[in-house]
Amino acid sequence: MKAIVCHEFAPVEQLSYEEIAVPESKPGHVIIHVEACGVNYPDGLLVEGLYQMKPDTPFVPGSEVCGVISSVGEGVTHLKEGMRVIALTMLGGYAEQVSVPATHVLPVPDAIASEEAAALVTAHATAHHALLQRGNIQPGETLLVTGAAGGTGLAAVQIGKALGANVIAVCSTDEKLALAKANGADVLINYSKVDLKEAIKEATDGKGVDVVYECVGGDTFHACSRSMAWNGRLLVIGFAGGEIPKFPVNLALVKGYSVVGVFWGAFTQHQPEDFAKNMKQLMQWYIEGKVKVVVDEALPLSDAINALKKVMGREVKGKMVLKP
Fold first, then answer.
1. pLDDT of residue 269
2. Where does the Enoyl reductase (ER) domain start and stop, copy by copy (predicted)?
3. What is the pLDDT of residues 14-58, one digit of tens each?
4. pLDDT confidence band for 318 (50 / 70 / 90)
């Protein structure tokens, strides 16, 4: 079968599209014939050796897929051959077939197209977990989302609205802000045109933000860290801007807020039952129209390098998808 292979940690341009062995069926797993695979910022970090985990090489990147089960391993009773599913693969998704633990596979309603279903797994699930389990956001609270037109930022805007929050979207261009507004953002801030800290102060009447969904890092993080409300929660999602900021802990002390790490991948491993419940709620919300997946572009699997370069360059509005 065809797959994208990382032979050594290096720039994404060194990935190869090649023939590899078809995965073998094993106990507790299913094999999925992949129809679509979501492309995520951490995929690029993983390939370059910059992510929290470093798998042995060679490996196939790709953490989320939608497809049809072609084989069911021993001990799996709740899934059947021919069933259409979404799956968290962690690795292996950039391929025509992938073996996945049955605990991380869920049936997907026919109402959700494959491209959108694949892109629902990581970005929306990260935002959902962050705002529910980590941020404990409440109706009427203020949520600020940085990188609000990217895959997970846009998901946070939608989910924040579904949970009753007043959503402030922060983006680098008016075009990106327009997309955030179309997905439910109440207040728009273009940080390339205004001082972010002052804009947040004005938007919150000086009270600060209850929950920040922070994806960018660098100066954006620093502005948010000085704009928190009492009892606020600053959620650390990632560092798409490239700079991992250093945090002066006295800010949390003086302002009485929490800095909360969000590592969704680890959450799925430590709390698989909660992960499954979250995904079922997300799919129900999708059917009800409370959330949706904005697919910027769907490219052939062989074009994975270009897809990753666009994601890493923050050129994507919504999600990028690969199709074997």
1. 85
2. 10-322
3. 999 999 999 998 999 999 999 999 999 889 999 999 888 899 999
4. confident
What does each C-alpha distance from 305 to 162, 201, 212, 295 come to in angstroms?
Answer: 34, 40, 32, 17
Summarised one tens digit per residue, pLDDT across range 119-168 is 888 889 999 999 999 999 999 999 999 999 988 999 999 999 999 999 99
Q: Which domains does the chain have, with CATH numbers?
A: 2-122+272-323 (3.90.180.10), 139-262 (3.40.50.720)
Query: Judging by DSSP bridges, how do beta strands 97-101 and 84-88 pair with one another?
Result: unpaired
Beta strand pairing call for 209-214 and 228-236: parallel
Cβ within 8 Å of residue 134, ≥6 positions away: 233, 235, 260, 261, 262
Distance CA 33, CA 52 (A): 28
CB 149 within 8 A of CB 184: no
- Pick from 28, 7, 32: which is nearest to 17 by CA? 7
- Nearest partner of 286 among 106, 63, 40, judged by Cα: 106
- Distance, first Cα to last Cα, the chain: 10
Confidence of residue 317 (pLDDT cuts 50, 70, 90): confident
pTM listed for this prediction: 0.86
For 134, 180, 232, 233, 284, the CA distances from 262, given in Å and listed in that order, are 7, 22, 15, 11, 23
User: What is the CA angle 70-74-75, rounded to 5?
Assistant: 115
Contacts of 252 (CB under 8 A, 6+ apart): 234, 258, 259
Phi and psi, residue 64, nearest 5°: -145, 135
Q: What is the DSSP letter of 102?
A: G
How many Å apart are CA 225 and CA 218, to the nearest integer? 11
> What is the chain's alpha carbon radius of gyration, rounded to the nearest angstrom?
19
Both tokens of 15, joined, read 């990935």
Residues 229, 249: Cα–Cα separation, whole Å = 15
